[in-house]
Design goal:
Two copies of one chain form a homodimer. Chain A has about 230 residues and is an alpha/beta fold. Chain A is about 35% helix and about 20% strand. The first copy, chain A, has nine helices and eleven strands. Strand 11 of chain A pairs antiparallel with strand 11 of chain B.
Chain lengths: ~230, ~230
């Protein structure tokens, strides 16, 4: 594993819950950027089918979540919120010593639209850090619409990824990863204790999408990191 | 008062707590956009001095908060979070029947930087709605750096304003107001119950500013409302 983001092309990326739209979308884009990516699922067959069907190219494969966690250098968590704690608790040992990137949005829907769910630990990422004391947890990729990631006609994903965490090397690594997807830029956006509102902002983007029939994302204005 | 955002140039705007940086900045830009603006303060003299000193032009004046609330069609709340509930409770009567735009960010600072404060009502805007049952509360202007608003060399404030509320006419009105500041665009971003994370995101922008030495704001990508 390369600790330097400039060496990020050598990373093997695992995507837990990678058969969902967001997981497949990130797996697709990161494998197209040159990373070996392993989609994880509870069933190896479903993982292999997702890897074969999302247009990600030869670097993309599937495995059960446990094997994806063991083989990867960096592990993205893209499971539904309902299964978040249990899955990570079960995988604490294979995830030990690794960078774990949580992109889960605790969110509910009712007749008035989307709303954020209150999380006892403050955020999904902080819950991950609680149940994975031997991993380095980073929050990122919360706002990237799966529809854009999966669309073969979208060459550039024109938005920023807010990256949160308490370990500088780990957040730099994820900022580097995000920056390898054309159009995308990773921006450091604070410590893990400020991740709850970033996750919850997804409910606002759902409201924006509904009002404007859009695939909304965000850009941070006024900062210097250049786009590729 | 014009209910149609296209007629927003006829609105008189009050800014409660308008002697702070954010209040003076908004008062300055909205008066330059052609609105009569009244900066409110606890002391009339301080309000008048703030109005005279922020470069806002002849449409800008000062008054005590109570008079600013009475005279204005739309009232922006830009007080420190600590005084938020008490001030609004005291002004419930003059604010009745009006659109109240809350831009307050409940936030704390410690040695590790900024962090969002938990608000019993969910957000400052929902607290305002609770203590102002006869007003129409909108959340907006949370992320606009005062330094840019007050800088005479900044002609265009290049960022979006997320506008939240449960009343379509009121959110449209505020979207129109935001859009009159050159470079700025108002975007509907959900109901008031989703305002807490928008307020709290300011802590992330503080973190971004610290890391990148920036005046960070946000743009929403992928939506159609054009910039002026």
């Amino acid at each position: 594993m390369a600790a330097d983001p400039l060496g990020a092309t050598t990373l093997t990326v695992g995507v837990l819950g990678g058969t969902g739209d967001e997981g497949r979308g990130l797996a697709r884009r990161l494998s197209l950027a040159g990373h070996p990516v392993i989609i994880g699922s509870r069933q190896a067959g479903r993982a292999a089918a997702a890897a074969a069907g999302c247009g990600g190219g030869p670097l993309l494969s599937g495995a059960v979540n446990h094997d994806a966690a063991i083989q990867a250098d960096v592990v993205i968590v893209a499971v539904p919120w309902e299964g978040h704690r249990d899955l990570l608790t079960a995988l604490a040992e294979p995830l030990a010593g690794k960078v774990v990137v949580d992109c889960v949005n605790p969110m509910g829907f009712d007749s008035r639209g989307a709303y954020s769910l209150r999380v006892p630990e403050g955020s999904a990422a902080e819950q991950a850090a609680t149940v994975l004391p031997d991993s380095t947890v980073v929050g990122a990729f919360h706002h990237v619409p799966a529809g854009l990631l999966l669309d073969p006609e979208v060459e550039r994903v024109e938005m920023d990824v807010l990256v949160l965490g308490d370990d500088r090397a780990a957040t730099d690594l994820v900022i580097g990863l995000a920056g390898e997807i054309p159009g995308m830029r990773g921006i450091y956006a604070g410590r893990l204790r400020n991740c709850g509102q970033v996750e919850a902002l997804t409910a606002n983007l759902v409201s924006i999408n509904r009002r404007y029939s859009a695939h909304a994302g965000i850009r941070v204005t006024g900062v210097w990191p250049p786009l590729r």
